[in-house]
């Protein structure tokens, strides 16, 4: 399981790094203003549906069913089920895409009401959204193929294919921009083109796995009906985080121009640890839990879930400490150039700190939700999700005036913390979450090590302030990150969480084997 976790996490990290390059280009060429806001809203719409229908509710219901069919009835029956599911998904998504293209002006009135105050920004957002919306169909189909590969325990290509989004996006921004009215149009076409490339790569990977899939005509077989029954309530339960981010965007359009952009770039930095750890934990844990529960191996399921909790907190807590201390220099060094001014970077850093507060909760939702999905329960997260959505809206309304661009991120972080608390309590009440006292004590020491690392970085920043030149700033930031990377394992060793010698030997052995 750890090997799969690291495989998915490694590919996701590479994808996030390329995504950072892509975002730097967007910031430098468009800055934080009306043009950037319009593009970000155009991208948010298909991305939200992708998370809900592709990586969210559909896969949360599909992967356990697919794994169970594979285990109990064999490869041929599992392939038939996957082809039927692909046909139903494509039929539904094409229909949804056509509706979106026709009614895009009305949709933008709902998700970007603040744009109506500026007719040019509204019209641009409508045009860009019509370009990006077909990405929904392509990437959701790709997500199903990735779910099949994950069910076959082929995690590498399923994760690597998502590099195409950023590679194609960078190529479009750099190479195609001169042929369009502005950079936003080139970036929008790059989004849709990347969906074609990703779907093609995953289809090729399925063929190589001798599990080629072609969609069947949509038919509501008993197994597909079961899939839909599990999926529909999960649209909210598994997509609370994305819906909350969309609410953030809606509120952001009502704030001064540029607020959507400030929150977007802050969220992209927050997504580096969140995307890597959340994707790795959720992707690898769900099929493992499903397999153990199908074999009535409840102790093994508990152990797998607890290991995932430990892994993500071991890596997430120092990320929170680092982001809280280094938010300003991170945003200045990475985005404070071109049309994105240093003042914009400082404002975006405020949003980053608000997002970072909820980072452990955002990741733990990805770990706790599979415990429900693997047991065929997609209803309980729905009830929790509805309450969290209502709470997030109330918090957004309360924070938007006094906190401006910090309000929506802080609201999402608080809502995520309460979401995790509710999910954990319900699992514990059903004896589906068992945390030994030794594990709790261990995690407390991990928290102490992360706090110690953050305090050390803060003191180092006081002694060596951020320089003025760009190159010197980049070197300074790299040095501070290096100090944190070295200090944290030393603190873990000193607190008895890990043994540096044995851990280093184990990593060396793994690398030698690879």
TrEMBL record:
This is Probable lipid II flippase MurJ. The chain crosses the membrane at residues 85-108, 128-149, 161-180, 186-206, 227-251, 271-290, 311-335, 355-374, 381-399, 411-431, 443-464, 476-500. Keywords: Cell inner membrane, Cell membrane, Cell shape, Cell wall biogenesis/degradation, Membrane, Peptidoglycan synthesis, Transmembrane, Transmembrane helix, Transport. Belongs to the MurJ/MviN family. InterPro entries: Lipid_II_flippase_MurJ/MviN, MurJ. GO terms for cellular component: plasma membrane. Its main location: membrane. One of its GO terms (biological process) is lipid translocation. Pathway: Cell wall biogenesis; peptidoglycan biosynthesis. Coiled coil: none annotated. The gene is murJ. It is a multi-pass membrane protein. It is found in: Cell inner membrane; Cell membrane. HAMAP family: MurJ_MviN (MF_02078). It comes from the Bacteria. GO terms for molecular function: lipid-linked peptidoglycan transporter activity. NCBIfam families: murJ_mviN. Involved in peptidoglycan biosynthesis. Transports lipid-linked peptidoglycan precursors from the inner to the outer leaflet of the cytoplasmic membrane. It comes from Acetobacter garciniae. The keyword Zinc-finger does not apply.
